[in-house]
Known about the structure:
Layout: H1 4-14, H2 17-28, E1 31-32, H3 33-40, H4 44-56, E2 60-64, E3 72-76, H5 78-90, E4 106-112, H6 117-129, E5 134-140, H7 149-157, E6 180-183, H8 186-189, E7 201-204, H9 210-213, H10 217-244
Parallel strand pairs: 4-5, 4-6, 6-7
Antiparallel strand pairs: 1-3, 2-3
Helix pairs in contact: 1-4, 2-4, 6-7, 6-10, 7-10
Amino acid sequence: MIPEEQLIEVFKALSDPNRLHLFKLLLISDRTNSELIGETGLKQNLLSHHLSALAECGLIHAQQSIGDARRRYYCPNLDIVSAVSRWWRLHSPSDQRPLPSLPKPLTVLFLCLRNGERSLIAEAVTRHMAPNALIPYSAGVQVANDISPLVGEVLREHKLPTDSLSTQTYHALTEIPFDYVVTVCDRVHEHPLPIEFADAQYLHWSLRDPHEEANTPAGQLIIARELFTEIEQRLAFFVNYMAHTSEGP
Length: 249
């Protein structure tokens, strides 16, 4: 894995538009100093500055021409590019479906105020996307409402079953040794968390509440659909991360 100090320098180097353009050119073809001046229009002193920054972080190197010792070619260090790519893959949602397996599936509780859309959709999506990685439950800290019609509508749009879902408070689950408790409601996260799950590792996903952000059924459905997509992305990242690291976040 690329050292974090070097990764920071790589990101700094590529944050400049000129250096990003130079690096993209060198990924396609090795070029000399004069060729780069001709293609970019940069003055010599500025070009030298940018090439030095790219070389210092390890993205490129210069090598002498075999045919003409007066020439030097700037070339990409593809091993560093591959290392950065591996870092991105580790820290990005996985495109694999179903998500990667874990040697020992983790038991996860999605906790919100009343076991509403956020926690129920998270439970359903997890069961569908990560059957070999996570064992999901959902619950509320207060007396649960009936299942919202929004949950059923959004899940049916994605052909996910709803018959296994039910609302409950966390008190019904205190005998389960959860590995992770994921709070999906800011109000729950910002108050003392249930001591019954003290051995679990807590994570927080600050998810949107359709009923708080929209006043009409149509608006609430839009938010619920966006909520589904965000949960998919967060879950894909979490499982991918856990599958590629020996330690949790």
